[in-house]
């Protein structure tokens, strides 16, 4: 990171953004526009991505490198969500997209934990600072929603209710810290295919209601992990299990070691287990490893903040 005088524009900006777990994911029937109405409660967790944006000479354009867990599975071209985020900001603000992006991955790839969305959120914040485009939070949020349904949450983090396609956010009150264990598989599940299977197997009702999550919201407000564990819910779980039946054993193993609640995270295949404590989360992760039901395991806490600048 190059030092700079406070008045001078930064030459490099590093931003951290979190992965997420859907504490509840309620999915309505597919609409004519192809989207599913969602009511979801996101929690940002301490598995994080770091995006560093470095100023390039005028005309150099965009370039991207990736390091960290499963980096080889992430595209380094214009299909990368962070690349698209930088491009969309440049277009909106009327500046040239001259920037070198580096992503350090800590969120499982294609794991249903929105790692790519976190990268996009982080890239928006980093490039806005680097290019001194000075967008408001509302403008950044609009650009984020145009990039993907989970990107706006990557900006705000903490715990939030998402409606619409999951992109219309309202902060949710949550007290205390929750301990999570995650079982990750190398073979990801395509979010689009999980929704397609949902359409075929489950279908969904036309309306989805937050009122179904009253118990969950109360548990969050009270900082009650037992109540939260009982209330975890994912309408996509049956579809993810139909596509990857071996996940059933991962859920079972966590239940056997006393997890307060276990769900497939978002569209899967990551499985999230809520634990009583950090030690309990480590014990759940160790049981998954011993049972051979995960390619890697992680422990994390939630909630945590959305995209925030680490250094510039
Ligand atoms: P979500 O929960 O938001 O649906 P996910 O966590 O299941 O997403 P991601 O890791 O965000 O999945 O990415 C899914 C796919 O998108 C990857 O397989 C990869 O090909 C592509 N992709 C594009 N940009 C990125 C990125 N920055 N990081 C990871 N994958 C990316």
From TrEMBL:
Job description of the protein: Catalyzes the phosphorylation of the position 2 hydroxy group of 4-diphosphocytidyl-2C-methyl-D-erythritol.
Domain GHMP kinase N-terminal per the UniProt entry, residue ranges: 80-157
Enzyme class at the top of the EC tree: transferase
Record GO biological process: isopentenyl diphosphate biosynthetic process, methylerythritol 4-phosphate pathway; terpenoid biosynthetic process
Lineage, opening ranks: Bacteria, Bacillati, Actinomycetota, Actinomycetes, Micrococcales
Record NCBIfam families: ispE, PRK03188.1
EC number, UniProt record: 2.7.1.148
Organism name: Oerskovia enterophila
Molecular-function annotations in GO: 4-(cytidine 5'-diphospho)-2-C-methyl-D-erythritol kinase activity; ATP binding
Reactions mediated catalytically: 4-CDP-2-C-methyl-D-erythritol + ATP = 4-CDP-2-C-methyl-D-erythritol 2-phosphate + ADP + H(+)
Protein's recorded name: 4-diphosphocytidyl-2-C-methyl-D-erythritol kinase
Residues the record marks as active site: 20, 150
Pathway: Isoprenoid biosynthesis; isopentenyl diphosphate biosynthesis via DXP pathway; isopentenyl diphosphate from 1-deoxy-D-xylulose 5-phosphate: step 3/6
InterPro entries cross-referenced by the UniProt entry: GHMP_kinase_C_dom, GHMP_kinase_C_sf, GHMP_kinase_N_dom, IspE, Ribosomal_Su5_D2-typ_SF, Ribsml_uS5_D2-typ_fold_subgr
Residues given in the record as ATP binding sites: 108-118
Similarity comment: Belongs to the GHMP kinase family. IspE subfamily.
SUPFAM superfamilies from the UniProt entry: GHMP Kinase, C-terminal domain (SSF55060), Ribosomal protein S5 domain 2-like (SSF54211)
Pfam families per the UniProt record, alphabetical: GHMP_kinases_C (PF08544), GHMP_kinases_N (PF00288)
Domain GHMP kinase C-terminal as annotated: residue spans: 216-292
Record keywords, A-Z: ATP-binding, Isoprene biosynthesis, Kinase, Nucleotide-binding, Transferase
